[in-house]
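New to this. Explain these tokens.
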Amino acid sequence: MKARVTVVDKGSPYRVQVLDRALGILDVLAREGSGIALVEISTQLGLHKSTVHRLLRVLERHRVVIKDSQNGRYRLGFRLFELGSQAIEQLDIRERAQPYLKNLVLQTGETAHICILDHGEMLSVANVESVRTIRTPSTVGRRTPAHCTAVGKALLAFLTDGELEDFIKKNPLKGYTGKTITSATALKAQIESVRERGYAIDDEEIEEGLRCIGAPIWDYSRSVIASMSIAGPAFRIKKEKIPALAEFVVRAARQLSAELGHQETLKIRRKPA
């Protein structure tokens, strides 16, 4: 039996209101993982019970919402999982990152790239090079250490404490320049700074004369899945310019995160243990 469809004028404010209320119900259910009663949903949204009931029946019909037959409480349905899985499969961070990387290069004048953590190293998956004559080259597929790069520290800072400890045990903190962090204590101290300010700095730690600024990229589950950075010569990325340049990097990373489904919170928090 086919569901009855009510035809409503596309410009009708009623149609928009119905969608808004239905999404509001989903938000409430998302916060109440163990299920919630109709009257509680009605109270939280400030809607009449009959209105909420009608919307819940439609959402049930489409398997977006499930009603527990024993206690009458509602929770999110598996249809959302199916849709979410399909959406994730369609996400390609490399393709989606390009507009943000290009804009970041225009704003800062420096090479921009995105890396993921792979077997203890940072793997470059997307990049846009600066157009300046003296620039930092970037190659997709290039691997760099995590402990002494801005992209690496930006990502390590938001692992769980256990994951960070595991990383340090499995990956020797090799020195590359006189400024490279080579002790676990020093790395943890710097990571705390990254957590506080929201971005990481490579101050000639992997290569003399090179400075980088990196920020984390979050996904829909509020986990850090990658990091974005700019890299350039130290004579251009002067220390006094870092805070201003970091604002561009952090903003671009957050914009890409939003496109990947991340919802910004008041304060950046680490992935829960």
In short: The two ends are 47 Å apart (CA to CA). The longest strand covers residues 224-233. The beta strands are 65-67, 74-76, 111-118, 121-128, 143-145, 200-203, 210-218, 224-233. Residues 100 and 255 are 8 Å apart (CA to CA).
